[in-house]
Amino acid sequence: MIKKEMIAMLLAGGQGSRLGVLTSKVAKPAVSFGGKYRIIDFPLSNCINSGVDTVGVLTQYQPLRLNTHIGIGIPWDLDRNIGGVTVLPPYEKSVNSEWYTGTANAIYQNIDYMDTFHPEYILILSGDHIYKMDYEVMLNFHKENDAAVTIAAMPVPKEEAKRFGIVITDEDKRINDFEEKPENPRSNLASMGIYIFSWKVLREALLAKAHQANLDFGKHIIPYCFEKGERLFAYEYNGYWKDVGTLSSYWEANMELINIVPEFNLYEEYWKIYTKSEALPPQYISSDSEVERSIIGEGASIYGKVYNSIIGCGVVIGKNSIVRDSIIMNETQIGEGCRLDKAIVAENVEIANGVEVGVGEEAPNETDPSIYNSGLATIGEHSYIPEKIKIGKNTVVFGKTIEKDYHNQMLASGKSLIKVGEK
Predict the structure, then answer these.
(1) How confident is the model at residue 392 (pLDDT cuts 50, 70, 90)?
(2) Does position 185 have pLDDT exceeding 80, yes or no?
(3) Is 46 helix (H, G, I), strand (E, B) or coil?
(4) Is residue 123 classed as helix, strand or coil in its secondary structure?
(5) Strand 410-411 relative to strand 390-392: parallel, antiparallel, unpaired?
(6) How far apart (Å, rounded) are the C-alpha atoms in residues 90 and 76?
(7) Distances 97 to 94, 100, 113 between C-alpha atoms, Å
(8) Does residue 68 sit in helix, strand or coil?
(9) How far apart are CA 193 and CA 41, in angstroms?
(10) Which helix or strand (DSSP H or E) is residue 198 part of?
(11) pLDDT of 423 over the 50 cut
(12) 154 Cβ partners below 8 Å, 6+ apart?
């Protein structure tokens, strides 16, 4: 009989709609981060670094790139005969087949998978946060307190607390109460969406609440365990943790990597971040180019000037082009004489000569001001921008555009240009 002390279930099916066009054709955990990584590399690397060698990855929305990236788990040493990494999409059953409708519903639909390992503990993770955490330390805390459920929580500023699920604890860190996004928070300990359950407790809770629509951990499973009088504890985490759910937080988290002393170090020897990487030649930086405070991915060719930016693998930046405070993802081609300021450019984009991105004064975006803001200009993957076009701030372009799509060769600040059929 296979027996694993703890297995991880990694929720990676989310669309991540607040990332706008970046996630229109790819699941949020598969979005590039920090040049050569993808967001899901962080929880996967945490698992193997913490000694968790069995991970179920629950996928649903646009899973192709995620599945190809994970493969059989070789980069994370998760290609195991017993355990390893398993991709778990929703599947057809003999009765009431359904998509994953909530975080806990996705776990409920995979009870059989978890049962095969006879685990004592289940670690629930989200696939869209940037952090390093030793889950073994959290498991030890769970055992020491004889807990049924341990919720990883971190202190947040009081004024931001109403955006999170908040836990209220006694001096022993036992949870007395919790509130989902409270108007007047009674504590500043926010749930990070990382849970360790004793499997017996979780299994019983999932079966008891299975009929619940959009079954969710924060709204249903944890309140159920609490009402049953189970022992719930908060494991306080004080390291770096970033939810990169919005374009501005995604941009900020990338920019923090290039600080002189970055708060989040991608290159620590003792806590490596692993990723699937192609065999690429080294970076080529021409003699006329300038690069300052930037991360340049393998296989990139830089003929222009790059300041304070994250450049992905295989990117080409043409002569006399200046890229500043921007994120350029893998395999994108930028022509000659271009200017990019505070741009987020997705993978496989082609920008022709003389294009300027991020120009002019800010104006609120006309279609989705809650997504396209903070002065950023966002270009979706496989887009084409013709020569000498100017693109303003708080803008979005997605699709193979032609000169006629622009008014006087300009997309003014706050405008959106999404070609029909690209959505």
Answers:
(1) very high
(2) yes
(3) helix
(4) strand
(5) parallel
(6) 24
(7) 7, 10, 16
(8) helix
(9) 17
(10) strand 189-198
(11) no
(12) 189, 190, 192, 236, 237, 238, 241
Question: 45, exposed or middle or buried, with CB in 10 Å at 0-12, 13-18, 19+?
Answer: buried
Q: Is 393 within 8 Å of 362 (Cβ atoms)? A: yes
Q: With helix as H, strand as E and coil as C, how does 223-258 read? A: HHHHHCCCCEEEEECCCCEEECCCHHHHHHHHHHCC
- CB of 357 closer than 8 Å to CB of 334: no
Q: Which tens digits make up the pLDDT trace of 28-48?
A: 888 999 988 999 999 999 999
pTM, 2 dp: 0.91
Q: Which residue has the higher pLDDT, 193 or 260?
A: 193
DSSP 9: E
Q: Is the confidence at residue 421, as pLDDT, over 70?
A: no
The DSSP code sequence of 337-360 is T-EEESEEE-TT-EE-TT-EEEES
All residues at 6 or more sequence positions from 211 whose CB lies less than 8 Å from its CB, including other chains: none
Q: Dihedrals φ, ψ of 198, to 5°?
A: -70, 130
Look at residue 299 in the predicted model and tell me its pLDDT. Answer: 94
> Which single residue is written with the structure tokens 């806590």?
271
Are the beta carbons of 381 and 351 closer than 8 angstroms? Answer: no
Among 9-13, 46-50, 399-403, the minimum mean pLDDT is found in 9-13
Taking the C-alpha atoms of residue 295 and residue 39, their distance in angstroms, rounded to an integer, is 16
Using an 8 Å Cβ cutoff, are 22 and 343 in contact? Answer: no
Cβ–Cβ < 8 Å for 401, 416: no
* Residue-by-residue DSSP string for 97-110: -----SHHHHHHTT
Q: CB under 8 Å to 383, separation ≥6 — which residues?
A: 346, 349, 350, 397, 398, 399, 400, 401
Bridge partner list, 8: 55, 123
Q: Left, alpha or beta for 167 (phi > 0: left; psi -120 to 50: alpha)? A: beta
Is the Cα torsion angle 370, 423, 421, 386 positive or negative in sign?
Answer: positive
Asked if the model's pLDDT at residue 303 lies above 90, the reply is yes
Residue that is written with structure tokens 């007047």 in the block:
184
Amino acid at position 345, single letter? V
Q: Determine the 3-state secondary structure of 146 from DSSP.
A: coil
State whether the Cα torsion 302-306-312-315 is positive or negative.
negative
> Which residues are 351's β-sheet partners?
334, 385
